[in-house]
Design a protein that fits this description.
The chain has 298 residues and is α/β, with parallel strands linked by helices. It folds into 2 domains: 217 residues, 2-enoyl-CoA Hydratase, Chain A, domain 1 (Alpha-Beta Complex); 73 residues, Lyase 2-enoyl-coa Hydratase, Chain  A, domain 2 (Orthogonal Bundle), CATH 1.10.12. Helices cover 43% and strands 13% of the residues. It contains 12 helices and 10 strands. The strands form 2 sheets. The chain has a 7-stranded mixed β-sheet, sandwiched between helices. Strands 6-8-9 form a 3-stranded mixed β-sheet. A hairpin with a 3-residue loop joins strand 2 and strand 3. Helix 5 packs across helix 6 and helix 9 packs antiparallel against helix 10. The N terminus and C terminus are likely disordered. Keywords: Hydrolase.
Amino acid sequence: MIHLSIKPVQPTDTAGVTSMTENPAPEILTDLTDDGVMLLTLNRPERHNAWTLEMELLYNELFDRAEHDPQVRAVVLTGAGRSFCPGMDMSVLDAASSGARPWPTDQLPPRTRPMSFPKPVVAAVNGACAGIGFNQALMCDVRFAVPHAKFAAAFSARGLVAEDGVSWILPRLVGYGNAADLLLSSRRINGTEALAMGLVNRLVEPQDLLPAALAYASELARSASPYAMSLIKRQLADDQARTFTESRDHAAALLATAKRAPDYREGVRSFIERRPPEFAGLGETPAVAPALAQEASS
């Protein structure tokens, strides 16, 4: 059994961790594990974590902070209670659809933050996942889900189009036919069907969902180079618009760059010496490993 020590990034008397929010019950909870995994929990369980403007602003702020914090090496995104996120709060949708209170789209950044985030993002889908929640889960790099999770695009049922570029992402995950089915029909599928079509990567029982997602992210944080992972995330996104030959040639140029970075030497030396690697966090000055220091002085 894997035990993870989680430090709340909230005001506490004992943890000694700096608070990221002043609100004692923010719409997104933040926790940082000892391995450098940031757990983001959408926190409106009384509304099944339905999306609001306040949640979106905090969501973007927390991702921005995590991106620039070298201690954060990966992110796990989940929902409090029985749901992940069923989409926009219906009171917001009602006001927006009537024209009484339009959503300030032109004043907000694109709702695609996990894709531009240079560190791994793992979704732990614990229940209803629709609309904006569906999109955010798809924009994560890896998805864990429970068998009873309910996935739905939901846009066509609300008289809307596939938002936030999901019509670009979904066919690349599940194929054109499955994507067309889900987007046109807005039908709900459970975690088992989502796994079968490639929408999720792992299916686990409810009591194991968060431990499994955190364990996976922790393994990335401990064993993989943050610098290399950031380059690979960029490759995965950019190569969607490249030919195979273009992708191969770009990888060769990128490989030359990676080989000049300290993580290349540390990755090789740690493997030879049969020890855990000591990679620096993104934006952090790499520490010189003892073996490398000895080489430099000899």
